[in-house]
What we know:
The chain has helices at about 5-10, 20-35, 40-50, 55-60, 65-75, 90-105, 105-125, 140-145, 155-165, 175-180, 185-215.
Amino acid sequence: MDVSRQxxxxxxxxxxxxxxxxxxxxxxxxxxxxxxxxxxxxSEVAEAAEVSRATAYRYFPSQAALVHAVVHEALGPILDWRxxxxxxxxxxxxxxxxxxxxxDEFEATFKAALKLSxxxxxxxxxxxxxxxxxxxxxxxxxxxxxxxxxxxxxxxxEAREQLAQALSLVxxxxxxxxxxxxxxxxxxxxxAVAEWAAAALVEAAVRDAQTAARSRAxxxx
Length: 221
């Protein structure tokens, strides 16, 4: 499920009544478990929320669907991020300033989702995943493509896509895994490093495009 579809879902009128309360109870329970470092199954959430398994599976037919919904809730304002800034440097700085504190706040939830994604990858490699739906992860793709919009006409479409792909390496919970868990940085310092790296990538893309343009403008030897 891509960001645009998720955004439309989040913009839809909220469901109300007992069904909405039960769904919220399950999401809140799953979030609490994931924030404690657990990647719960639907059955485990049902038990913790004190609802029947049959009821739980009507709301979330698989662990992937459950975790996907929890991640969607945790991302919150990140999915609504938009920028009208006329330059990519300002846009990427604004995106990281908006997103990284939220990612840090729900770090355990996002790490639990990452763990499920890695576990499923290992199961697919071993041929043991069976019919379990795959947890899809791709929220950052459209967000980072938005960052590159001001570069349209200044760099090639291929270079813009490559920049968005490169920026994905310095955006997300994986950044915290590297900078906090491996390097021992604080959340604030990790964000500063991510912002510096993102700016360097944008500047490199612009510089490469300018170098290529000058080369094309040179008369043949």
